Amino acid sequence: MAVLTTRNKSARRGLRALARASCLLAVAAALFSAAPQPVRAGVYTEELGEMQTLLQDMVVKQSRGQTDTAPDREDLMAVWESARNLPPDEVFNQTRYVLADINGDGEGELLTGDAEGRITNLYTQQGGRPRHVKSGFVRDACYYLGGNRFLSTGSTGGRNMVLSLWHLDKQGSPVCDQYYYTREAEADPARQEVYVGTDPNTGGAAAKKSTYTVGELNDLRQQYEGKRFSLPWRPLADFGNQPVEITFFNLGGAKVQLEYTATRYVKDFHVVQVEAVPDGGSFRQRLVQDLPAGDLALAESFRGEPCVNGARSQFLTDGFTYRDHTGRQHYYQFHYSGADGSLIGSEEQIPW
Q1: Helix (H, G, I), strand (E, B) or coil at 187
Q2: Does some domain include residue 75?
Q3: Which residues, at least 6 apart from 80, have a Cβ–Cβ distance to it below 8 Å?
Q4: Sequence-distant (≥ 6) Cβ neighbours of residue 309 within 8 angstroms
Q5: Torsion of the alpha carbons at 146, 227, 160 and 115, rounded to the nearest 10
Q6: What is d(CA 307, CA 314) in angstroms, rounded to the nearest whole number?
Q7: CA dihedral in degrees (11, 17, 19, 20; nearest 10)?
Q8: Fewer CB near the terminus (10 Å): N or C of the chain?
Q9: Residues 133, 188: one domain?
Q10: Total count of domains within the chain
């Protein structure tokens, strides 16, 4: 038997508030309703790859009954929080991303989000390198309002509420346009008051007491959330479906060693041997041996001696199959190159 090894989220007053809110929304719709221009992945390939790796690891641990802990990095933590309670087979479809030029500087931004349209991360570029701008969580949600306009809404703990409107400048940095928050009234801690400013980092120092009540602010929040702009999100499962990497190297003499290293999590890895058998006036390929090797996590490797053109080896391998994170099955077959006689592997249609 072959041995496989691997390594390895009061009516009047109300009318006044609604009128103010309607005006704000009308201005926002007029100024910021244009759809962003799409761009290529470019410098964000590594960030998207890290998210896939994070989610693959999470799914593997869940399938094995292991405890999965939140990552240390804020951007990865936001993705992890939004995906951790999803069914394993929906993780990569309900985790979304979009590449678009949000601030009109000609360089694209990367946004990640969930199936409800909530933004989990926003990245921009600086000096040709990706720069993380903001993350959105369940208690601090972020939404896109169209053009170069964003809404952040959440809680600072307890009953306190925060609502901010902001945009990106040409350098890709966030600029706060309006910032509302609630806090306990000094004269009566049981009552909350609304404050407004333009810089959330200075808190009450630069903020003024607003004419909004807490209820009116909550109505405003709901209206903005109802005006979210629908981005052309793509499932993370669509990113990075490039071929797997295979390496062959000589062990000395006529022996050739195969090494397959998983460039992403793959399920149901099998080493197979297929032979050609007569079928009327032609031949068909028949599966002779199928050795399951289980799932391979990122960077885990399988090594074995391939079997080509009937030459038998310990592992009797002349190909392998696996399923990617979308469930699609792949088959790689080994054969000798006609040019220089070297051993190569190529993806083929499954013949059996």
Answers
A1: coil
A2: yes
A3: 54, 55, 58, 70, 71
A4: 335, 336
A5: -80
A6: 9
A7: 170
A8: N
A9: yes
A10: 2
Which one of 236, 254, 283 terminates a domain? 236
> What is the mean pLDDT, run by run of 10 residues, along the chain of 352 residues?
35 40 40 47 81 88 88 96 92 92 88 95 91 94 93 82 93 92 86 83 67 92 90 85 51 58 71 80 81 71 60 53 78 70 74 80
Within-domain flag for 13: no
Q: Which residues of 311-339 are buried (b: 16+ CB within 10 A; e: fewer)?
A: eebebbbbbbbbebbeeeeebbbbeeeee
188 with 160, same domain?
yes
Tell me if 78 sits within 8 A of 90, measured CB to CB.
Answer: no
Residue tagged 């995906």 (tokens): 83
Nearest Cα to Cα of residue 53 among 282, 230, 254, 239: 239
Distances (CA, A) of 85 to 34, 58, 324: 34, 11, 21
Query: How many angstroms separate the CA atoms of 122 and 296, rounded?
Result: 31
What is the C-alpha separation between 206 and 228, in angstroms, rounded? Answer: 29
Structural domain boundaries enclosing 321: 241-348
Q: Give domain status of residue 207, yes or no.
A: yes
| Residue 218 within a domain | yes
Rounded distance, CA 227 to CA 231, Å? 12
Residues 266 and 185 reside in one and the same domain: no
State the pTM of this model.
0.61
Return the sign of the alpha-carbon dihedral for residues 247, 252, 256, 258. negative
State both tokens at 175: 């600029």
- For residue 282, count CB atoms less than 10 angstroms from its CB and return exposed for 0-12, middle for 13-18, buried for 19 or more: exposed
DSSP 243: P
Q: Classify residue 71 by burial, with Cβ atoms within 10 Å: 0-12, 13-18, 19+.
A: middle
Q: How far apart are CA 182 and CA 305, in angstroms?
A: 67
> Are 174 and 250 part of one and the same domain?
no
Which among 239, 307, 248 is positioned nearest to 272, based on CA atoms? Answer: 307
